[in-house]
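We modelled the chain as a single entity of 444 amino acids. Its sequence is:
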Amino acid sequence: MIETPEQLKADILSLVERYHAAAHAKPPFTPGVSAVPYAGRWYDASDMLNLVDSSLDFWLTAGPYAARFEAGLRDLFQAHDCAFVNSGSSANLLMVSALCAIETPRLLRGDDPPALQPGDEVITPAVTFPTTLTPILQNGLVPVFVDCELDTYNVNAEAVAAAVGPRTRAMFIPHTVGLPAHLDALQAVAREHNLWLLEDGCDALGGRWNGKIVGSFGAMSSLSFFPAHHITTGEGGAVVVNHPRLRKVLRSLRDWGRDCWCDPGVSDTCRNRFGWQMGDLPAGYDHKYIYSNHGYNLKATDMQAAIGVAQLARLEQVTALRQRNFRRYQEGLADVADALILPRVFPQADPSPFGFPLTVREGLDCRRLVAHLQASKIETRQVFGGNILRQPGFMNIPRRVYGNLEVSDRIMRDTIFVGVWPGMTLEMVDYVVAQVRDFVQHGG
């Protein structure tokens, strides 16, 4: 009897589940011997089953799983749209580019902030990730750098308000290491000065501010699904579109700059595919090949989305485990706060942390702390680029700096973070706490 494709697929997926159990079992943790990563992939058999299922369907480009993943994200954020892309960095590029796109002025209304033009200013913190800043430069805009707060590691909202100038048109604000920036204050500045607010939410998925999910406050927000982040698709990211009039241009820029809004594999959604007259094109030119913007191809694959569907189903669990680990550090290090600055969380915030930042106080050497933890097989990371203007690729960029960046320099020099990811057991967290305490108690 010849087996049907459905029967064969069921057999294959059963083998995949058995393979996952045999090949991907987690080894026990041995203090001082096992590595303690700062982050990592956290997955189970459902991720692998979805990935293989998608591969057998062989969509390759975005397809049914991508539609499910985007719909799940859209529901999570209660957003007008969520567009799946190939990285969080691409998501940042698309958001800034959407505010500068050729088509954008036509889509906006009188009560919207204006579209951005070359030379317009965007306020952003000096402590940032390179691909949060780079899209500002790539679009001919001028970044305005303000300092950060030493204990929240986020932009100083009072400095943001004071930094607004006559050419300021937007703010691009990351939620550093997953700790929400002061969204009430930032939204107030945006309203007062009619500015666009963009959130870089790549480190903060699942966090909340006054009960509302982080990433739903700005006109748009970026997400990252790199393996170090809250959920993963391997490479991947998304743009959360909260402003209804930015949806079309955002998807246009992601999909080559085309004017057509049909989903992959679909034609004639507008019911007028050969009836358009745009630009200097011949009447009736195929709408699928009309381009209204200077776009890219930044889409991701259905196989990546298949993993994302499984991962998104566990986001609540991921958030709870990250929060548990964060609290364990806070409790375990509370009595050495005279030697280390521990992170402060705004009372309105319920973060889904990316890491647990530590800043050494005077008398301790951050490099020696890193060396001590490395010798104990504990990974650490800097707070991304530190003061980005000290980085070799950004020293001579066009910019305006409001005030001084002393705190940003301090974060660059004296701050690291350790892991809180769901693969961190309490035994691992307690081991990190013990090693940090040992460093402090022996005077660094």
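As a brief sanity check on the tokenised model: The CA atoms of residues 121 and 166 lie 9 Å apart. The chain is about 35% helix and 15% strand.
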